[in-house]
Specification:
This protein is mostly helical and about 120 residues long. The chain has helices at about 5-15, 20-35, 45-60, 65, 70-90, 95-110. The chain is built from 6 helices and no strands. It starts with a helix and ends in a 15-residue tail after the last helix.
């Protein structure tokens, strides 16, 4: 069973049990899957959502981030800053820029997001 099947099964279980915290986690994973998928047309709202999600996880000291090495955390921050600055400097993205931005988001979320729809692995 791959990650996608596992998350689908979790989603079905959550829908039946109604646990709001787990349901929110599942919805966040679904949204990240969609945003990071190479065929999804990336928009400003998606980028802002991802940056807000990462910011909240850092502020909450998510355990998944606590296991990362300091050099990896610095890489995450670098990619977070690249994605954030792209919002400041650009309004629209070409396909190539969207691909680069999507990769920055994927790398900024390293440790929080384990599925790599583009076929790439982080680190």
């Amino acid at each position: 069973m791959d990650d996608k099947d596992a998350y689908l099964r979790i989603g079905v279980t959550l829908a039946m049990n109604g646990d709001p915290q787990l349901s929110a986690l599942y919805k966040s994973r679904q949204r990240m899957d969609r945003i990071l998928h190479p065929d999804h047309p990336l928009c400003r709202e998606d980028v802002v959502w991802m940056l807000e999600y990462i910011k909240k996880k850092v502020a909450d000291e998510d355990p998944a981030l606590m296991d990362l090495s300091q050099p990896r955390l610095m890489q995450n921050f670098h990619f977070f800053a690249e994605a954030a600055m792209s919002l400041v400097h650009r309004r629209h993205y070409s396909d190539q820029e969207a691909h680069r931005l999507r990769e920055w988001l994927r790398q900024a979320a390293y440790g929080l997001y384990h599925h790599a729809p583009s076929g790439k692995t982080a680190e």
